[in-house]
Amino acid sequence: MCHQGIERVQMFDREANTLYSNDGILLIGLISDTHIGVPSETLPPQVKDALSSVDLILHAGDIWIPSVLDELESIAPVMAAWGDDDMEADIGDDCRMMKGHSLLLEGVTLWLTHIKPLYTLINPKGEVFSPGPNPEDPPDVVVFGHTHSAAIEHYKDVLLVSPGSATFPNYISKLGTVALLTISSGEVEARIVQLE
């Protein structure tokens, strides 16, 4: 199941977590905290509509069951971070999921994690945990979840994006948000999409 539909992009190096597009522009769908617990429950159609033209989908955790990733992978390749509510007994050994991903996307370094790193871990000054190969190098972008609140912020030269929750915003069961990240010529732009 891992990374079906990758032909939409020019090259994806799974070993190096590197993605290049055909035209130099990547559109990445960001989603988090879907909290879908039974296979008979599916993502709202508004999620699929909002993400229909993306090249890659990054899920920032609290998925609960792998059918959510399967649904998303019908749109575009998916990578996901383990959330604090994701259980191995439910998800198993799904190759799309890691505690954190460090990706190189069109020359932009992106960290995908469930819980937002402390600012000192994003721009480190010493020995720290980092999902990247070199903890001395801060990322260009951090995508995180856990808060159930959408947010876009900047810290020093790092863009931090929480897509919020598509299905459980602010811990209320209703339609929420996703986010879109555009990478073009090393420039990154993020926007929150309210699902309606």
| Global outline | globular
**CATH homologous superfamily annotation:** Metallo-dependent phosphatases
Order of strands in the sheet with the most strands? 1-2-7-8-9-11-10
Give me the number of helical elements.
4
Number of strands: 13
- CATH T-level topology: Purple Acid Phosphatase, chain A, domain 2
Gyration radius, to the nearest Å? 15 Å
According to CATH, what is the class?
A: Alpha Beta
The proportion of strand residues reads 25-35%
Distance between the termini: 30 Å
Helicity level, as a percent range?
10-25%
Named at the architecture level, the CATH assignment is 4-Layer Sandwich
Structural class: mainly beta
Quick structural gist:
11% of the residues lie in helices and 34% in strands. Residues 3-12 and 124-129 have low confidence and may be disordered.
